[in-house]
Amino acid sequence: MADVKHFDPEAALDRAMALFWRQGYEATSVGDLVAELGVSRSSLYATFGDKPALFQAALERYRRVEAGPRHDLLTGDGPVLDAIRALLEGIAAAPAVHPDRRGCLIVNAAMERVPADAATAAVVAAQLGSFEEALAGALRRGQDRGELDRGQDATALARFLVTVVQGMRVVGKAGADPAVLGDVVEVALAAIRPAA
Questions:
Q1: What is the distance between the alpha carbons of residues 31 and 20, in angstroms, rounded to a whole number?
Q2: Of 190, 192, 37, 63, which Cα lies nearest the Cα of 123?
Q3: Which of 42, 122, 127, 171 has the fewest CB atoms within 10 Å, i.e. is most exposed?
Q4: Could you tell me which residues come within 8 angstroms of residue 8 by beta carbon, excluding any fewer than 6 positions away?
C-alpha cells in the first residue's frame, strides 16, 4: 500500500524556502529542514529528494512567488519610468521592511553556491536572464512612447539595471541605510530618462 502524505507539499516547500532564505544553504542541515517542515526524513526525501533537490525546488518557488510580481510590474501598461521607479524604490526600502536582512534568495544563492553548484548557477542565470528580458522589454516600450532616452541601447540599459538591483540587494543585506539606496535609485533613473 502506498505511503500517504500527511502534509501539504506546497506549504512545506514555502517553509523550506523561508529557511534557506534565512540561513543559507550551507547553514541549513537536513535536521533543520525536518524540524522546520514538521515531516520525517523519509517523507522529506520521498517528496523532495535530497537537500540539493529541495534547494533547487525552493529557488524555483522563489522565482515564481517573489520575482513574479516584479516581472508583472515591468510588463504592465502603465508608464515605464514609474514602474522602474517602483521596482527600485521597493528594493531600496527592503532593508527597513525586512529588518532580518534576508536579502534576495537568488542573490544569496549566487554568492554562496555559484560557481561550484551548476544547478544553482543555472537557476540564477535563468532568473537574471528573465529579469533582464523584462527590463529590456519595458525600456523599449518606454523608448517607443518617448518616456525614456531613445539614444541608448535598451539591452545595455537593462544589463546596467540588473547589476544595480543586484548590488542594491547585496548592500541592503549588509545593512545599508535605505536613504543611501534611495540615492542609487535616483542615479539609476537619471541614466534612463530622456536628456533635457
A1: 13
A2: 63
A3: 42
A4: none
Can you give the residue range of the structural domain that contains 128? Answer: 51-192
Looking at residue 179, its amino acid is: A
Q: What is the pLDDT of residues 44-86, one digit of tens each?
A: 999 999 999 999 999 999 999 988 888 889 998 899 999 999 9
- CATH at 184: 1.10.357.10
Length of the chain: 196
111-122 pLDDT, tens digit per residue, is 999 999 999 999
Cell of 143: 523608448
Q: For residue 109, is it within any domain?
A: yes
Domain count, the chain: 1
Amino acid identity, position 135: L
